[in-house]
Amino acid sequence: MKAVMLGSGKVATAMGLQLAKHIQFVEVFSPNTTHAKTLANKLNSVACSEIEKLTLQADVYILAVKDDALAQLAQQLRLNNKLVIHTSGSAEIDVLSPISSQIGVMYPLQSIAHNFNLNKWKSARICIEASTKEALSTVETLAHFLSTKIHPISSKQRLNLHLAAVFANNFVNHMLYISQNILQENLVNPEMLHTLIRETTENAILFGAKESQTGPAIRHDQKTIEKHIELLNNKDLEKEIYTLLTQSIQQKFNHE
Amino acid sequence: MKAVMLGSGKVATAMGLQLAKHIQFVEVFSPNTTHAKTLANKLNSVACSEIEKLTLQADVYILAVKDDALAQLAQQLRLNNKLVIHTSGSAEIDVLSPISSQIGVMYPLQSIAHNFNLNKWKSARICIEASTKEALSTVETLAHFLSTKIHPISSKQRLNLHLAAVFANNFVNHMLYISQNILQENLVNPEMLHTLIRETTENAILFGAKESQTGPAIRHDQKTIEKHIELLNNKDLEKEIYTLLTQSIQQKFNHE
């Protein structure tokens, strides 16, 4: 199978490096010449930075780019019946319709940082979708090169899953960032909270987050809430976050 | 050592049951007669529900009650030089000053739910503080009956630690609650996110949350952000939370 990777960011790199163990990348496209060359070298491939010169000789085109770049590529690329795949959690499959009739999605439910450890692929869940049986079969084959955990889901489910992942990953991490900051400013060892943090996620996973809620908000401990808000007096956004989340916790549990 | 437990809630119960393996509880106080009796039975002790009848014959009085009850007890109790301890994360040690000159704090950094598994005590961190060397020595002895992880910290540090724990535990759990809700509404198996959730906290612990931030907010992926907000159109609080946390993430990382 001959493939083209469009994109040169973290997802394109992590996915490209893993897939290159099984398939041949005949070209790597990025509008930025340096970026295209860097990833092309890593994938033992050829760089392309002019979209009109992109090879038409590959079997599959993987678009691992931001959603706005996806829309732009959809205007520029015409690949007839070649298989065209995007990797986005939030773009519908149909964004690819102008490019080809054989389209698919391969969305890794995985936080991919720079220098992503390729061993992590095997535990990553890959959400897939395709426009035809034939396309689905190839998407499945490719997804299996990344992981054994393959999940066919619809565009609507994927978008909601992506939203849920923002809360579970990005926003959880931001709560931990604010927490670590408060400890640092008060010269408290961050290790103090590590057991509690691990227990928090384990309880939410094992018993459900609904059953696991504790703290001043849910027990309406107004005195403590006021003290906390006073401590945040010089931090407008943190104060707003504290107030809003307290309100949200109280509302959820009053309504049930 | 003869002790009195004031309080009958989750902390009083979990702490009382563990301490009763080492010390004798001569009385359990709660203004609610039934609650006082229930915990007194568990601790093989005697119930008291009238504060003016509380025994003066004990060596140590543990006030495991809400902060507003603490302030009220401080007005009612006069115990001269008996050791008086509270268990609150957010109350200063001096709230106990009217009661005695020998005062202390024993704050378990541990989310304590109903039916708390007593085995968890040994991994819990106990933050302690005391007004005199003598008081500190007894508080340390009691804390060691709960756990080997004892940390002397000031009231100001403890209050900030408590605030940090609200972000790391209560608010993280609420993010996971919203996330699990979105999955449920869209018939997506909640297991899909378990690996990601575990990785999120492990990364924040190992590398720091500052280094671990990913997602649409930090990469200013406006298109995805707008799609997510649209999905939350019928959920006012979730929409407000999404917008505020996105803004907060972007502000932190622009300023550095």
Q: Using DSSP, what is the number of strands of chain A?
A: 8
Largest sheet features of chain A: 8 strands, mixed
Order of strands, widest sheet of chain A: 3-2-1-4-5-6-7-8
Low-confidence segments of chain A: none
Query: Biggest interface: chains and residue counts?
Result: A-B, 90 and 90 residues
Arithmetic mean of pLDDT of chain A = 95
Question: Distance N terminus to C terminus of chain A?
Answer: 54 Å
Strand content of chain A: 5-15%
Rg of Cα set of chain A: 23 Å
Multimerization state: homodimer
Structural class of chain A: alpha/beta
Number of helices of chain A: 9
Order of helices and strands of chain A: EHEHEEHEEEHEHHHHH
Helix fraction of chain A?
A: 40-55%
Per the principal axes of the C-alpha atoms, what is the gross shape of chain A?
A: elongated
Protein model, in words:
Two copies of one chain form a homodimer. The first copy, chain A, has nine helices and eight strands. Chain A has 256 residues and is α/β, with parallel strands linked by helices. In chain A, strands 3-2-1-4-5-6-7-8 form an eight-stranded mixed sheet, with helices on both faces. The N and C termini of chain A lie far apart (54 Å). In chain A, 49% of the residues are buried.
In short:
2 copies of one chain form a homodimer. Chain A is α/β, with parallel strands linked by helices and 256 residues long.
Structural descriptors:
15% strand, alpha/beta, homodimer, 256 residues
